[in-house]
């Protein structure tokens, strides 16, 4: 039995990916248990392992944690990625929550019906380039530091990087008007733990393909 | 100029209601600005007051805070409603997030098209009575304490009571299988 956190989810990004990023950034090794069929999910539910009968679920420090934000909050605090005081945490929370909003848009793109896809794509690009990215560009410009909050790596940096990369997968030149975000991306990607996570063969998951959607629906619906 | 937190939102529950509950539970007086017209909202955006061009906005301790969860976490942390250590916080977070999922269904309910309303109400009832309330009933039964976490009043208790009352408004008999929750 190892002391490593154990992640229960399907073999894809979804709501578990941000947690994988945080653990990786913190240099924490983790194991994964993939749900492949509905039976796998049902078994976990019947075991009483899932507080609200849902995944993600992470076994960590003797707890079976559910709810992705609760899990991320715990990991971020434990590994000192959550600022030094209440006010830094408030800033980090504001930045992270907005990133999560943008992530939701990006994640749901693959599930859009064909006739809505183009409009959804336009919404993603509009929100990313007009609502969210300008804020982070300005934050970096105003304080001139390498990290978003407190001149130190925090979960806000990790989660922003995750989202920037996902946005680029959606539209490769999406950062063209944001020079500071581009250099932020390069800089944070170079942090050794994160650099390792970005290598092929890591536990980072690829984007969901349309062909995988039916299998996913079978597990969860 | 007062030192009280100032809330900006429309004059209704929406995403601000949990913030009002939490401040009230902490005994903190607050002021409210209600958005009545689109012009007011657009002015706020133009003034650069809304970080992501959205409300809720809460002006507190020199910050213009946005994003409901960020606001709630700050208030809970400041007024000692967030447990005594990391593990208690983890429990509180799990409970709050679960309840928030249920509250989201209630929040969206008025916006359902008429033909979907009955089905959505059934979903709320189903989730409340099969997924969420049983968890909290069990938690209270197992430790026999008055509060969900750490034998002390916390954000989780506030969120739960808000949710119970909100669901009861829609489904009056919803607590009939949950003696522990009735006592709350």
Description of the molecule:
The complex is a heterodimer of chains A (221) and B (184). Chain A is an alpha+beta fold and 221 residues long. Chain A has 2 domains: 6-79 and 198-214, 3-Layer(aba) Sandwich (Glutaredoxin), CATH 3.40.30.10; 86-190, Glutathione S-transferase Yfyf (Class Pi), Chain A, domain 2. Chain A is built from 9 helices and 4 strands. Chain A has helices at 17-25, 38-46, 68-78, 86-107, 114-143, 155-170, 179-189, 192-197, 213-220; strands spanning 6-9, 31-34, 57-60, 63-66. In chain A, a hairpin with a 2-residue loop joins strand 3 (57-60) and strand 4 (63-66). In chain A, helix 4 runs antiparallel to helix 5. Chain A is globular and about 50 Å long. By secondary structure, chain B is α+β, with helices and mostly antiparallel strands. Chain B is 54% helix and 9% strand. Chain B is built from 7 helices and 4 strands. Chain B starts with 5 loop residues before the first strand and ends with a helix.
> Numbering strands along the chain, what is their spatial order in the largest sheet of chain A?
2-1-3-4
The protein's oligomeric status is: heterodimer
Sequence of strands across the biggest β-sheet of chain B: 2-1-3-4
The secondary-structure element order of chain A is EHEHEEHHHHHHH
Q: Biggest sheet of chain A, in brief?
A: 4 strands, mixed
Family (chain B): Belongs to the GST superfamily. Alpha family.
Protein name (chain B): Glutathione S-transferase
Domain GST N-terminal (chain B): 3-83
Keywords (chain B): Transferase
């Amino acid at each position: 039995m190892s002391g490593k956190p154990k992640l229960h989810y399907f073999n894809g990004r979804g709501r578990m990916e941000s947690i994988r990023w945080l653990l990786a950034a913190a240099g924490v090794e983790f194991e994964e248990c993939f749900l492949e069929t509905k039976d796998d999910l049902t078994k976990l539910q019947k075991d009483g392992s899932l507080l609200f009968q849902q995944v993600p679920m992470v076994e960590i420090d003797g707890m079976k944690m559910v709810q992705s934000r609760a899990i991320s909050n715990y990991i971020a605090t434990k590994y000192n990625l959550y600022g030094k005081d209440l006010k830094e945490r408030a800033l980090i929370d504001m930045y992270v929550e907005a990133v999560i909003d943008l992530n939701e848009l990006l994640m749901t793109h693959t599930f859009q019906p064909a006739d809505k896809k183009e409009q959804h794509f336009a919404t993603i690009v509009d929100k990313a380039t007009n609502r969210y990215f300008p804020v982070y560009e300005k934050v970096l410009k105003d304080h001139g530091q390498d990290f978003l909050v407190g001149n130190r790596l925090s979960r806000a940096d990790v989660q922003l990087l995750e989202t920037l990369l996902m946005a680029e997968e959606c539209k490769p030149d999406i950062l063209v008007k944001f020079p500071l975000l581009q250099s932020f991306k390069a800089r944070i990607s170079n942090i050794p733990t994160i650099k390792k996570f970005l290598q092929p063969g890591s536990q980072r998951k690829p984007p969901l393909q349309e062909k995988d959607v039916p299998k996913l629906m079978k597990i969860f619906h | 100029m007062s030192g009280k937190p100032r809330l900006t939102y429309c004059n209704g529950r929406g995403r601000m209601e949990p913030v009002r509950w939490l401040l009230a539970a902490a005994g903190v007086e607050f002021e409210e600005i209600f958005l009545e017209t689109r012009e007011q909202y657009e002015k706020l955006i133009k003034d650069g007051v809304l970080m992501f061009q959205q409300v809720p906005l809460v002006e507190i301790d020199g910050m213009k805070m946005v994003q409901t969860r960020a606001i709630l976490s700050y208030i809970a942390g400041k007024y000692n409603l967030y447990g005594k250590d990391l593990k208690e916080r983890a429990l509180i977070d799990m409970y709050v997030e679960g309840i928030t999922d249920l509250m989201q269904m209630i929040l969206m309910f008025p916006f359902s098209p008429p033909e979907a309303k009955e089905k959505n109400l059934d979903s709320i009832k189903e989730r409340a009575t099969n997924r969420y309330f049983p968890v909290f009933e069990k938690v209270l039964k197992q430790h026999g304490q008055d509060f969900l976490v750490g034998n002390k009043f916390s954000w989780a208790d506030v969120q739960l009571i808000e949710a119970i009352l909100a669901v009861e408004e829609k489904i009056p008999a919803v607590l009939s299988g949950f003696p522990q929750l009735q006592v709350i």
